Each structure stands twice: as C-alpha cells, then as structure tokens.
Amino acid sequence: MNFSELFKLSGLLGRFSPDGKCLASCVQYRLVVRDASTLQILQLYTCLDQIQYIEWSSDSLFILCAMYKRGVVQVWSLEQPDWHCKIDEGSAGLVASCWSPDGRHILNTTEFHLRITVWSLCTKSVSYIKYPKACQQGIAFTKDGRYMAVAERRDCKDFVSIFVCSDWQLLRHFDTETQDLFGIEWAPNGCVLAAWDTCLEYKILLYSLDGRLLSTYRAYEWSLGIKSIAWSPSSQFLAIGSYDEKVRILNHVTWKKITEFEHPATVASSKTIVYKEVEKSPSVETERLSFPPTRALASSLFSTQSKYDVSQVPVSLQHIKPVTDRANPKMGIGMLAFSPDNCFLATKNDNIPNAVWIWDIQKLKLFVVLEQLCAVQSFQWDPRQPRLAVCTGNSKVYLWSPAGCVSVQVPMEGDFQIVSLAWHCSGDSVALLSKDNFCVCYLEREEV
Questions:
Q1: Is the CB of residue 199 less than 8 Å from the CB of residue 225?
Q2: What strands, in cross-sheet order, belong to the sheet with 147-154?
Q3: What is the number of helices (H) and of strands (E) in the chain?
Q4: From CA 447, how far away is CA 257, in angstroms rounded?
Q5: Contact at 8 Å (CB) between 330 and 322?
Q6: Which residues contact 186 (CB under 8 A, 6 or more apart)?
Q7: Over the stretch 290-334, which tens digit does the pLDDT of each residue have?
C-alpha cells in the first residue's frame, strides 16, 4: 500500500472522473485537474468565487463548478481548455446544480425552490420545471440515464413528475400519498421508484415507471420513522434504516419485509466476529535513534498506531443516549450501503457511533462488527469487490474484506484527519479527504 504526498483541498471537494483518468480537487476558487495515476497537474482553472460544489459529466469531458453564493455555475472542458461556459441565475439565486446523464445539460435549482432550469450546452436552449420540492433528495435519474423523476409540491400536496431525459418531455405526473415527501430514489434497474415520507411519518411508497402505486410499507406509527434507504445493486432488496435502530429489508417480488436487522449495544451471537481496534505504542530500536530525531521519524514515533483484535462475545459496544428533545437526534440508522456484489450490507447506528455493522445478505445474518476507537465519519465500498474503507476523523484508514481487516497509518507529518473517502472506479486507489488536504492511497489487488 502506497500513499501520495498531501495536496491542499477545500470543502471536501475531491472527485475521480467517471472514466478513472483524472482527479479533480478544489482550493478556494481554483479547480485543479490531475492525472489519476501520476497526480501530475493537467489543467488549472480559476473560477469567479469560492467553489462550493463540483461534478464531472458522465463522459468525463466536462466539469461543473457551482458557486451558490453568487448564483453562478462555471463549466470547464478538458478537451478544449480555452472553452468555458458561465451560467448566471441572476436574482433567482442558486441552491443546487447537477448534470443530466447525457453530460450536455445542466439542471439548476433556484432559491426557494421556485423552479429547476435545464440549460443545454449544445443548443443553448433553456427549459423550466416548476414547483420542485425543497427536500433532501428531490431529483433522481435512472441508472441508464433515460428518465428523471422530480419531487414537486403544489397546492399543499406532493407530486412526482417523470421526464424523458432525451427531450425533457413529461412522461407521467402523479400525486404521492405522503404528508411531506422527503426523498425519491430509483431502483438500479430503473423499474421502480421509491418515495418516502418525512421522519415524522413512517411511510415508503413504491411506484412503477408509469406512475402506478405498487406497494406501501409502514413499520410502525407515532414515532420517528425513516432515516436512510439503500437499494441493492441487483434491485432485489430495498434496505430501510429508521430511527428505532433497525434496518428492514423488503423484497422486490411482494415488497413485504423479509427480515429486520437490530443494532443492540451488546453483540451476543457466537457466529458474529467482532474486530476491536486497540492502540499499540510503536516499538523503537533505541540504538538507531538519532537525537533530536528527524521530524518524519518524530511524527511516526509519537503517533499512536492501532491494530484489530478479535473480541470474545458477548461484547458491549459504546452506546450514547441521544438528546431526544432536539431536532435531528443522533439516533437510528444514519448510513447504509450494499457491497457491489450484493453479498454484504454495511450499516451505522448513530446511537453506537464507533461501530460499523456488516451483514451477510445471503444468510440475512450479522457477519462482522468493527468497533473503532473514534466515531465513524464515513465508509464506502470498493466498486469492484467486497472491500470496505472506513475513516474515523484520524490519520488512519481502515479496510475490511471477508479475509479480515487492517488499520493503516497514513505516513504524514502534522495533523491529517480523514473525514471522507472517494474510491477510484478500478478499486485500485482511494482518495482520503480531510478538511484542508487530501492524499491518494494506492492498493495492490491482493491486499486485505
């Protein structure tokens, strides 16, 4: 495993291109595009203001930079560095911007969610979508890029409109049986759209492409409801994480619950492996020490290293009592993600912030728990194999695969606190992002 040097970063804006050839990062108002394998700078672009969001086009030829404070989006071309485009929403303002799947249209959401403006880079034409809903996940594209669903709110009712992305024609428009629609997400096969209600109402609705309601699922009433959802890559399962610290798995045939995964503070099953991170002081051969030690040696001497021990069950995990009289209490399933081969589901229960739970989807059983020393900030699956990268806000990266797990110290001077991760599409490298810096970790195929 090798690490690059540290590079400056702002706003956690570091992204590999979809084709894997480039890595884009932002430093204040500058956009830096590097070669993903050598990290040599290929292009350097200067924007009008501090960049708040970046996104690659699907063909990796263009990159969008949004400056929400100014209401401006700038688009840069990698093929023709002299060409660039500026979209100014003017007094309408800007709160969100994204590419359409064809990589030739940009969708801008104006302030107060008055409308979504669709700008064409090819014809310079403009279309408008009215009444978009101000919710966490209000636009969803099918994986094949053919259709777009938009959550809408008009006359105090929730609606969903489905558009054909090739010409932006309206295909279907229907109302949803929700109190306050919170998000929409397509199944990977593009056949089913999940729409879920605000956390005050446990309700998830499943619609077909033509707007028919296929099923409604409610687990309970009169308590905080859905916190997160994830489709399995095969579209066979829908995992719903909720505030009651459980994940419920629905199947794609009847849309009924096939099982629920609990996240108790004590892991009791002898069939579950619990990996506990423990600190170990690095051993140093005193004869080889020069005094005063070099900076690099000093930082590696005094940074505490860690490894995983396998704990004997039952194991009590560190549990926090949430403050329930505040908005957005730290409780329930805040993160969940399926592995690319459909075999595993990783979850995090916000009541037990230091643990990652890995479930065997074939057996529908808890397989592994990773108990970290610090709270888990982020985890992401390798796009090519069941290998999970975890970061906890320190200078280590943790990797788990069915073969075992490792804790790796990033060999950097100073304070490098990893709070986010971004895998390369090949799974051969992963970008480790902190608030002010990033580095790239290169992995060998056989590692872990």
A1: yes
A2: 139-141, 147-154, 157-164, 169-175
A3: 1, 41
A4: 36
A5: yes
A6: 140, 141, 142, 143, 147, 149, 192, 193, 194, 231
A7: 555 555 544 555 567 899 999 999 999 999 988 878 877 889 999
Beta bridge partners of 311: 274
pLDDT band at 286 (very low <50, low <70, confident <90, very high): very low
The number of beta carbons lying within 10 Å of the beta carbon of residue 65 is: 27
Distant-in-sequence, close-in-space partners of 56: CB < 8 Å, separation ≥ 6: 15, 17, 18, 24, 62, 63, 64, 99
CA distances from 203 to 153, 183, 214, 223, 424 (A): 18, 11, 14, 12, 35
The two three-digit tokens of residue 447, written as one number: 């590692």
Q: From CA 307, how far away is CA 17, in angstroms rounded?
A: 33
CA distance 277 to 354: 10
Contact 118, 99 (CB under 8 A): no
Residue with tokens 């359409």: 100
Let me know if 34 is exposed, middle or buried by CB neighbors in 10 A (0-12, 13-18, 19+): buried
pLDDT given for residue 151 in this prediction: 98
Q: Residue 301 — φ and ψ, nearest 5°?
A: -65, -45
Closest CA to 51 of 99, 14, 106: 14
CB 432 within 8 A of CB 397: yes
pLDDT at residue 149 tops 90: yes
Cα-Cα-Cα-Cα dihedral of 420, 426, 428, 430, to 10°?
-10
Using CA atoms, how far apart are residues 344 and 232, in angstroms rounded to an integer? Answer: 9
The model's pLDDT over 396-406, given as tens digits with 9 standing for 90+, comes to: 999 999 999 99
Q: Please, what is the Cα angle at 245 between 240 and 250, to 5 degrees?
A: 25
Q: What is d(CA 46, CA 26) in angstroms, rounded to the nearest whole number?
A: 10
What would the mean pLDDT of 71-77 be, rounded to a whole number? 97
With tokens 């409604």, the residue in question is 216
